[in-house]
Design brief:
Layout (H helix, E strand, L loop, with lengths): L1 H19 L8 H10 L2 H8 L3 H15 L4 E4 L2 E4 L1 H29 L3 E7 L1 H8 L3 H7 L3 E7 L13 E2 L26 H11 L1
Parallel strand pairs: 3-4, 3-5
Antiparallel strand pairs: 1-2
Length: 202
């Protein structure tokens, strides 16, 4: 019998931890905060433009997710429990942080910023990449370019590179490749060299 009781306790503990790790309860916080501030389901429902029964379901879901009773409900109204008071004290700051995070994430998609790490051959980088950096810096002042001019074959995954500019066929099938230019090989020689070689042949 003692083993059975311990088993039930462990299962309940896992269920409680699963609820606490479920972050979906955050979506109920704005509704909870309005109810806590106004002290009434009906008043909060009118302010939020919701049906009272729908609002009550949000509070029930929040209490279930947190594993705590937030309100004492009676015919005379609502009263916050100790858990409700604690959540009320922190909910406004938490929602403000979430709003700030969303704004910061949105700004990342609007304006390029941070560090762009690129690796390429020295000759190619000096000829084509470096001349473009002043214009890029003027257009995106929050973007910093870390350009690695090297002859070695860099590993973008291991070296945390955003891009590696290479010449030739793409051998690593685990990387995404896009052609940015076509290189042509031309054999050249000076007129004096050609004349000298022609004289040697004759």
């Amino acid at each position: 019998m003692r083993w059975a009781e311990n088993t039930v306790f462990i299962r309940n503990a896992f269920a409680y931890n699963a609820k606490m790790n479920d972050a979906r309860y955050v979506e109920h916080l704005p509704i909870f905060l309005e109810v806590a501030l106004l002290g009434s389901f009906s008043a909060a429902a009118r302010k939020l433009g919701m049906v009272p029964s729908s609002l009550v379901r949000h509070i029930d879901a929040l209490e279930s997710a947190l594993g705590a009773t937030l309100f004492i409900r009676s015919t005379r109204g609502l009263m916050l429990t100790d858990a409700g008071e604690m959540l009320k004290a922190r909910a406004a700051a938490l929602l403000s942080d979430i709003t700030d995070i969303r704004a910061e994430l949105a700004s990342l998609s609007d304006v390029p910023q941070g560090t762009l790490r690129i690796s390429c051959l020295p000759t190619f980088g000096k000829t084509y990449i470096l001349p473009l950096l002043p214009t890029l810096a003027e257009r995106y002042p929050q973007l910093f370019v870390d350009l690695d001019l090297t002859e070695r074959q860099t590993d973008p995954t291991q070296e945390l590179l955003d891009a590696a500019i290479r010449i030739g066929e793409q051998k690593d099938s685990g990387l995404y490749a896009s052609r940015i230019a076509t290189q042509r090989w031309v054999m050249c020689a000076s007129p004096d060299y050609i004349a000298a070689m022609a004289a040697q042949r004759t």
